[in-house]
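Hi R.,

As promised, here are both runs. First protein below:
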Amino acid sequence: MAPPYTVATKKVPNPVDKHVGSRVRMRRQMLAMSQEKLGAALGLTFQQVQKYEKGATRISASRLQQISHILQTPVEFFFEGAPNASAPHGSNKSELWMAQIDDFVSDPDGLRLIGAFLRIDNAALRRRIVMLVQEIAGDDGNGGSTTTKVKSRE
C-alpha cells in the first residue's frame, strides 16, 4: 500500500506577526532608512528584513528589542493597534482602520504629508487644514459623511 501524500499548502502569516512587521516597516520608513541599512545593523540581509516586514518570518523577542533600539522606538510601538490574537480573524472592527493607517504611513506620499503637517507650528492653521481635508473627503469629522462640496476658487 502506498503511503498517503500531502498537498503542500501556502503558509499564511499570523495577523500579529504581520502587524508587527508592518510597524517595523512603517518606523523604518519614517526614519528614511533602507532595508539594507536595517539589515546591516542587525547583521542580516535585506531579504530577511523583507520577510520580517511581511510577517512571513516571526521576529524573536530579542531581535525585536534590537530592532526597537536601532529604530529608536519602544518595543510597545510595534504592538500598537495589533489585532487580538485570541479573537477570530476579522472580528476586530478596528482591524480594517488600522490596516488603512498602516498603508497610508507606509506610502511615500503619506509620509511626506505627515512630515510636512508636523512641521506646521501654528495649531490654528493645522486645525484649518484638517477641516479642509475633511470637507474635501466629505467627512464631517464625527465619522459621518456630509454632502458639502468644496467651492472652487477661480
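And here is the second one, sequence first, then its C-alpha cells:
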Amino acid sequence: MSNELINLMANLKEQETLTIVRRRLDAGEDPLLILDDSRKAMEIVGKRFAKNEYFIPELIYSGEIAKEIAELVKPKLAKVQDINRLGKVIIGTVSGDIHDIGKNIVSFMLDVNGFEVYDIGVDQVPQNFVDKIKQTGSRVVGLSGFLTFAFDAMRETVEAVKAAGLRDKVKIMIGGGQMNDDIRKYTGADAYGMDAMAGVALAKKWVGTK
C-alpha cells in the first residue's frame, strides 16, 4: 500500500491519492509514515522535473496534493499544539525560486513537533529573512531551494544576515534539493537537512532540546 500511495501521488492522481490517505488514517496507521511516503513521491516529482518530464505546473500541482495530505494528517498529530513551544523557526524559499513543496512539509513537521514557525513564503529576498530575524528574535533559520541557482541566493542570504550583525545569533540550515556538505560550505550555512525530520532534529539540537 505504501508504494501505491507513492506512485499515485508521483503520477499526480489527486483523488486516488487522497482516498488512499484517508483509508490508511482510518486504519490507524502512523501518520508519520504517510508523510514519509508523501516525501518520497515528491522526490520522484523532483527527479522528473530535473529530466524535463515535469514542468512548473506539475510542480505546483504536486505541491497542492502535498498540502491536502498535510491537512488530512495534521489532526492526528494535533495534540502537540497545546504544549509549550520549543522555540522559533523562520523558514522560506530563497529569492528566484517558487518551489514550496519541501518547505511546506518541513514547516508542518516543525509545527507539529512543537516549534513556533514563521513561514515567510517563496521567492524571498535576503532582506526579508533579516527583517524577520529582527522582528521575531528567532535563533533558527531554514533556507529552502529546489533549483540549482538557489544555492547562490542561499549564499547571498547568509551574507545578508552576517552583514546585519546577526550571524552569531542564529543557526542556518538549508534544504530542498540535492544537498551535501560542499553546498553547505558554499552557502555558509551551519548544516543541511535531507528531509523534514532531519530539519526537525537540527532545530531541536540548536534550541537545546534532544
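A quick note on the second one: The chain has a mean pLDDT of 89. Let me know what you think.

Best,
J.
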